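Task: sequence design from structure.
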């Protein structure tokens, strides 16, 4: 899919970038840094019971209209933008490893690589990912090693679960352990459609009952999980419990750039009420766990 010139301009404007430039390494870095900051990763539409398509043309229009999404939307739309700007982009099957679980490549994440020609005329491959909320703020060269991007330290190494693939080990203070990528190129995003349907409709979906939104800047990451705001920067991790709808909406807009443009006043009230209900359930579960811990001491 190739975006029209008008769509390209509207997309980069959404990222806060003034105009279109040549497909250089420096412009790729500018695009990714802006994307992970301006377009948060979120479960909003699934949580609200209004899941959306991952068809790239519609996803791009969603981005232009002031909305965001999760990996299939964000990396899918970004791939379309990059191709339209003249970059050589490849899609890959990938899998996120939650804390305490095993590595996997289960196609529940869409990964991207970009090929660039360096000053010596050699082709270099870069890992590009705007689809998880707190992945690297800048592209990483596909060379195994350690990469510092405050407040995180990332490690790129061979995958143990995908032959010929690679793995990004996330920082120990991050919300998940890492991501494994398969080397084979995926030509059609519809490969991920069954997993998108699972996220949207399955009783086993992790997102139907969890409001979660994340974004990333060059120096920090932010996460709002229900009513708990977690900010991670060079000074450490700070958690704040959000206690009112007004504070919650202000945080969404000011920190995450999420203004709930798809939802009217009544729908926003319903989303907030569901967030509050799930937050209270979570607090009761925390209290029960604390009680069990005390009785075993």
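Answer:
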């Amino acid at each position: 899919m190739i975006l029209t010139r008008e769509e390209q301009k509207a997309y980069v404007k959404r990222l806060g970038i003034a105009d279109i430039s040549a497909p250089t390494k420096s412009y790729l870095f500018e695009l990714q840094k802006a994307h992970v900051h301006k377009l948060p990763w979120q479960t909003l539409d699934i949580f609200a019971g209004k899941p959306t398509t991952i068809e790239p043309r519609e996803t791009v229009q969603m981005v232009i209209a002031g909305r965001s999404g999760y990996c299939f939307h964000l990396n899918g739309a970004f791939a379309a933008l990059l191709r339209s700007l003249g970059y050589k982009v490849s899609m890959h099957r990938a899998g996120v490893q939650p804390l305490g679980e095993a590595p996997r490549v289960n196609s529940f994440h869409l990964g991207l690589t970009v090929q660039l020609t360096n000053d010596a005329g050699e082709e270099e491959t870069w890992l590009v990912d705007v689809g998880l909320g707190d992945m690297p703020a800048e592209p990483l060269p596909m060379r195994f090693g350690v990469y510092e991007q405050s407040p995180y330290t990332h490690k790129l190494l061979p995958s143990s679960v995908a032959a010929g693939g690679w793995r990004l080990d996330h920082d120990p203070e991050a919300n998940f352990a890492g991501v494994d990528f398969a080397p084979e190129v995926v030509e059609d995003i519809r490969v991920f459609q069954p997993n998108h349907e699972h996220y949207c409709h399955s009783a086993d979906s992790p997102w139907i009952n969890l409001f979660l939104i994340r974004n990333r800047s060059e120096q920090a990451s932010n996460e709002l999980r229900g009513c708990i705001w977690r900010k991670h920067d060079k000074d450490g991790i700070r958690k704040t419990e959000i206690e009112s709808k007004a504070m919650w909406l202000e945080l969404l807009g000011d920190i995450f750039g999420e203004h709930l443009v798809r939802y009217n006043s009544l729908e926003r009230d319903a989303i907030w009420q569901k967030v509050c209900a799930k937050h209270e359930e979570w607090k009761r579960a925390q209290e029960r766990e604390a009680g069990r811990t005390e009785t075993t001491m």
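The CA atoms of residues 245 and 270 lie 11 Å apart.
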